[in-house]
Amino acid sequence: MANSSELSIPRTEPDLATRRRAEILTGSIRVIARDGVVAAKLKDIARESGVSLGLVQHYFDTRDKLVDETFTVMMRAISQEAQRRLQGIEDPLELIYAMNALHVHGTIGFPERWGFWSELWAAAGRSEHLRGVSTQVYQLWAHPLEEALEVLSTTDRLPSGADPHRIATGVLALMDGLSIRTLADPEGISAEFMLQVLNDWVSTQLGVPPEVAARHVAALSHTTHPTAPRPLTPDVVAEALRTPHSTTSFQTAT
User: Total domain count for the chain?
Assistant: First the structure.
């Protein structure tokens, strides 16, 4: 079954230091999504965060440290939200459709979230360090997909010769390409259309009949989808800062 360990989210108000760090990191996410990693300047992040440049430098010694922590907190926020939304899904096939919906409709609004990740992919080609960060992001996304596909394989629910690793890689590559098209042409390529293409591709690769796929997708209306993404706020980031990092895991029911 899906990982049943419920995240313990602190309900107390964050302390001042955590609140300030969350404000700065929220501003950093927005600036990187808008301007890119390379062009993101501390003074612009300070302005977006509503704090002084000196305060940014107080909490983050260097620009590189701030960029690193920005990517780390974004990964943590998405990981913990994914764990919440995917809890209770016991069928591995349904989990895969749920992850498609999660990546499209997401935990944070589409333009900020996918704009942020697109900037990471672009910068990774010019920076060995950011290449390592992007690898961590892909591992975070690929792990639950591959785990669910492995369960389908061991229970003879994949077509003969189907490779879980290749299918997971294909899903993530298709997500990336469609997200860029959706960002560039939101009127021509909607998020709903992106999700439909992803689900159709997965169904074809896994040999799932249309009526079976439709049943699994419909079941998600009672679980993860259509939960609206949360606005990106310092409260969301502060929650991620205070929550230990974890990854979403899928195991067979016992």
Answer: 1
